[in-house]
Amino acid sequence: MVRIGVLGLQGAIREHIHAIEASGAEGMVIKRKEQLEEVDGLILPGGESTTMRRLIDKYDFFDALISFGKQGKPIFGTCAGLILLANNIHGQEQAHLSLMDITVERNAFGRQRESFEASLSVEGVGEDFEAVFIRAPYIVEVGPETEILASYQGKIVAARQGHYMCSAFHPELTEDYRLTAYFTDMVKEYQK
Amino acid sequence: MSKVGTDRVKRGMAEMQKGGVIMDVVNAEQAKIAEEAGAVAVMALERVPSDIRAAGGVARMADPTIVEEVMNAVSIPVMAKARIGHIVEARVLESMGVDYIDESEVLTPADEVYHLNKKEYTVPFVCGCRNLGEAARRIGEGSSMLRTKGEPGTGNIVEAVRHIREVNAQVRKLVNMSEDEVMTYAKDLGAPYEVLLDIKDRGRLPVVNFAAGGVATPADAALMMQLGADGVFVGSGIFKSDNPANFARSIVEATTHYEDYDLIAKVSKGIGTAMKGLEISTIAPEERMQDRGW
What we know:
heterodimer; A: alpha/beta; seven-stranded mixed β-sheet; three-stranded mixed β-sheet; 34% strand; B: alpha/beta; eight-stranded parallel β-sheet; 13 helices; 43% helix; globular
């Protein structure tokens, strides 16, 4: 069985572990960088990206996360996790991990009052995917290597680039585990 | 077709705050210090609880100028407080685009019988509780997040401990009881039966529950996490300490790594003096904020 970690600094950690287990993999909360060696893939959960970045720096996770990705181990970023993966953040000089060739806009759909849920078609996953958007970002543009997995009202909300994947919405907040299962399959594929 | 203001969207927002610290701030400068320290959200208000206590009189919703100033200063979510039962203060904060409203006993209640019907709003609410009865009533009214009350503005953790222990002990009791016993437990607690059944099914509260009211040090914050809080609100504890930036950073770290005692020792070293605390028995009963709310 593959083992998938969830970066456990802050945010919706328990829900991701639950979704991983429902997808037939083993979940593990990662609080220390050394624990990264024990997992085959990693989810960067939703939470507050500013807070997470501070804690990533504080606990010296920054280089460890980049090297985890460069070793060819799959990473899936949801919401704040998507922002962490992007190599370009609109209106900010500095990006974070810069592992995916995407430009993102933070809080792009508005404040909490404008947060919403919608039904999406996700490439390779299926139709009628219930997507929950919370103060969500969206992807303004993707590089040539990046495949668009889902769009909502013309905005890119999920993408994949090789063994990296991201969504602006929260697959862990519903009981529709298809996207996490898709990532689990990706982890299995890259483990070979 | 998109839907706004659903339970999933409102409760989900609080899920994203888990493991984090929400800090009271009274201006843009404090909000920036909080964000820089790693707060997951800030609570914009006119005075922190200990100053409200000292000032006396009627405490109301903050001047919208302050709320707006804070909203413009940071990119993390901004919460603000409305008086218990004050429909218009809540609607005003919602119209301003505040991310979360705290229907708070820290302010002087506007209604001594009814809380807000929080289901009717697009914006989510957080409410205080001291026990499962209060928690379930607030959930029944549509609260998307809870916080145990503690005794705000005291820098004394004892009430916060009492309340988180009480809520969690009652949740455990409910989860383990036979379904035959739930209706009578609902009657005893004054709690909505359906909410209790839902908690029993899930084995936990259906919404995130933070701790509040008395957190003054990194160790206090870690204690609340160990007692089962999903995160921590710090009111007066940060900006009434003698080095707010240090206290803010250290409290965030102690909350993240609440079981790492070496680290808590390290972040507690030389951070300066915590806010001056208040012994609960010296507070006149009518000035106890935790007794507000019904």
